[in-house]
Structures are given as structure tokens and as C-alpha cells.
Amino acid sequence: MRIRQTAAATIGAFALTASLLAANTGAVAAEGLDRDDHFSFQKIADPADVTFTQLLGINDHGLIAGYHTNTPGNKGFTLKLPDTFTDENFPNSAQTQVVGIDNNDTTVGFYIDTGGVNHGFLKQNGKDAVTVDLPGTTFNQLLGVNNNAQAAGYYQEAAGLQHGYVHEKDGSFLVLNIPTPSSQATGINDEGDVVGFMQSSPTATTADGFLLHNGELKKIAFPKSSFTQALGINNHGDVVGDYTDANGTMHGFEYRDGSYLSVDVPGASATTVNGINNDGRIVGFFQDPNQNNNTIGLVGEPRS
Asked: Looking at the chain, which terminus has fewer C-beta neighbours within 10 angstroms, N or C?
């Protein structure tokens, strides 16, 4: 997934974070509000490292999942606005990224162990985090979760091809039948609708997003773009993600009722929208050319 990196690593082999579970609060390094035609943006940087913060998921209570860099790796967190960061890292991992969060504060994401292997994880509120890997595989990531304890993610073959799946509440896996050699499932809503993206290979320069609804696959492709990633979905069926334009610049987008809306933080050199809740609030990240292209988290409030 090129997502958590459009600035982070690529969605496909995300960039990770690590450290043991520990609470931490601090002032948000924020630059106030900017506006485009549809959203007011708050810029968020984790005080632990103001040069790199990604906000990746948001629930209906406004609790946000994300991660920041911290040598030698990345560290996951949840964020309660305006400024309460709580570290969340898989125990004894080398790196962790927290990617999705539901209304019960269940979180999902992935971690890299000390041997360099990627594993998915799920952490229910008040319980220890557990590893979630498709049996027989050696590379997994969970990237989204709904309020029914279903999680969307993918595994990677030894040859490098990726395959989206849904991890069910009972612990079973449903591998998605996506008609391309490589795919990732990145988000799932309470209706069981799944979004993600598909490619001829994980390193291909073209990609199409997808929406899987009631067994029917719909292509999500931003007009005149050859690279679109669908990264999140809410219960209204609104889809968010990113796309690359003809000049190679990455922009966020929202897809609603058959129409596409480009979403950019004013002045940013790249923008990604990674999550959306049922109130239409979005989260993601952007690169700031006025600050050495630092990666900064964003929260977008819909303008009425």
C-alpha cells in the first residue's frame, strides 16, 4: 500500500513503528486550520517527532489511530484531540503501526518482529494485542476494522504478490477473489463492504481502487489518473484514498454517490486521505514543502 507512506513506506510494505505499550501525552504541534472548498484542516504532528506523523483511522468518537517515526523504528499511537497521545505498540516488536480503529476502540495494524517479519495484530479495548496471520503465510498486515470485529488486510506470497482478505470475528479468514495478480484490502464498514486497491504487481506504476459490495466488484479510479488507492470507507459508503496526477503529484480524494472530490491541504506537495468516520470527518497526512517536506498528520472537518 503506498498509502501510509505516500510518505511512509508503501502501503504494500508499510513503514513500521515500535516500543512497548506506554501512555504519553504532550502538546500537539499544530498549525491551526487551513481550508479547501470542502474541508477545514487541522495539522497534527506528534511531539515525539514533529518531522513525521501519519493519522490513519478515526472512529465516531473522534479517537484517531496512527504512528510516528522514532529511531530506530516507528511507533504506533492513538490520539484524542486536541493533544492526548497514547503509545500503542505490539509487545517486544521492532516496529508497529496502528492503522484502523472502531467505535469500541478496537485497533488493528501491523508490527515487525525482531526477525524482520510483518504480522497483523488486533487489540480489543482492555485486552492484550494478538497476532493475526493467515496460516501458512509469512507476511501479513491488517489495515481496517469495523464495529463487528471484522478486519481487512492482506498477506504477501514469497514471490511478492499480495492478496486481500477479511479476518472474521471467529478467527477465520476470507481471501477475496480479486481479478488481478496482486491486491490489498484496506478498509471495511459495518455492512461488510470492503475497499482496497489492485495491481498487476506490488511494484506496478498503475493501480485501481476497488469497492466490493454484496459480492460485486466496482472499480474506483479517479478520473484521468492511472494510480488510485481506495483506503477507507464509512457506513454511508463514502470512500477515501489517494491518486496520482499526470505530473506525479499525489492527492487525496473522497468518492461519494458516484462522484469524485479531490482533497488537498492548501500548499501541500502531496496529500493522502486514509480514513473517514460516519460524520464525514477525515484523517490522513500531507507533505509540507515549507518544512523540508516533513510528513504531517491531518484532520479534515467537513464544511457545512
From this structure: C
